[in-house]
Amino acid sequence: MAWTRDQMAQRAAQELRDGYYVNLGIGIPTLVSNYIPEGMTVQLQSENGMLGMGPFPLEGEEDPDLINAGKQTITELPTTSYFSSADSFAMIRGGHINLSILGAMQVAENGDLANWMIPGKMVKGMGGAMDLVAGVKKVVVVMEHSAKGKDGSMEPKLLHRCTLPLTGTRVVDMVITDLGVFTIDKHGNGGMKLVELAPGVTVEDVKAQTEASFTVALGEAAQKAA
Q1: Domain with 72 in it
Q2: Which residues are catalytic?
Q3: Collapsing DSSP states into helix, strand and coil, what is residue 23?
Q4: CA–CA gap between residue 100 and residue 133 (Å, rounded)
Q5: What residues have CB less than 8 Å from 168, skipping those under 6 apart?
Q6: Which keywords, in A-to-Z order, does the entry hold (predicted)?
Q7: What are the counts of helices (DSSP H) followed by strands (DSSP E) for the chain?
Q8: Number of domains comprising the chain
Q9: What sign does the dihedral 8-10-15-21 (CA atoms) show?
């Protein structure tokens, strides 16, 4: 049984560490804020100029002036601070954010990431993803393992090489999908490694839905899966 979106976010939250400054991307990554371990102090940072975001507001308690970079209403904390977008990107580009959790349309086996546009479709802009993948210490991608193609068939999103415009080259450290968890040796020759499976999912299930080459390292076992 594959992980749900919430379970994927919960697994991503395991990558948080006490004292981290973290940027959450649009989509599934925003759900990670619901699973910050109790007692852990994590500061959530947003490109639009907010550090220390609280949980999503209850219905009827929304403040339209308090939004994250994805234009979702959020809440503030006693420790929240506000600043310009320029200062926010200075934090990101200066390497002061420990972890970014992003969505993606495609990830290549060498860590290349495509998550900002599909040619021919209107986009509002590239957002902050290109800065995040270049300036943040660790990049984790959370996404569905496959996407529905034009003919209705499911197409893999983990590829040998990305076919969509790149957000960054050799930038992804970890990929969490509904089928499992992969690590990527983005600066070396270790490639992509399957390190965890969702309950009820087999290695064969993953192979059938993956174009990228990867090794399997579940516990002590390691074998090539071309």
Answers
A1: 5-225
A2: 47
A3: strand
A4: 8
A5: 112, 113, 129, 130, 133, 134
A6: Transferase
A7: 4, 16
A8: 1
A9: positive
Residue 64 corresponds to which tokens in the numbers above? 């339209």
Sign of CA dihedral 130, 185, 9, 121: positive
**What's the predicted TM-score (pTM) here?**
0.91
207-217 burial, b if ≥16 CB within 10 A, otherwise e?
Answer: eebbebebbbe
What does the alpha-carbon distance between residue 31 and residue 179 come to, in Å, rounded to a whole number? 18
Question: 126 versus 194: which is more confidently predicted?
Answer: 194
Domain CATH number, residue 16: 3.40.1080.10
pLDDT mean over 33-50:
93
pLDDT tens for each residue of 56-71 = 888 999 999 898 887 8
pLDDT average, residue stretch 120-126: 64
- Rounded-to-integer distance, Cα 212 and Cα 226, Å: 8
- Which of 42-56, 86-100, 169-183, 199-213 has the lowest average pLDDT? 42-56
Q: What is the DSSP string of 161-188?
A: S--SPPSBSS---EEE-SSEEEEEETTS
DSSP string, 141-153: EE--SEEE-TTS-
SS3 content of the chain, % helix, strand, coil (to 5): 20, 30, 50
The C-alpha atoms of residue 13 and residue 121 are separated, in whole angstroms, by 32
SS3 of residue 15 by DSSP = helix
Do you know the residue count of the chain?
A: 226
Query: What mean pLDDT is predicted for residues 128-156?
Result: 92
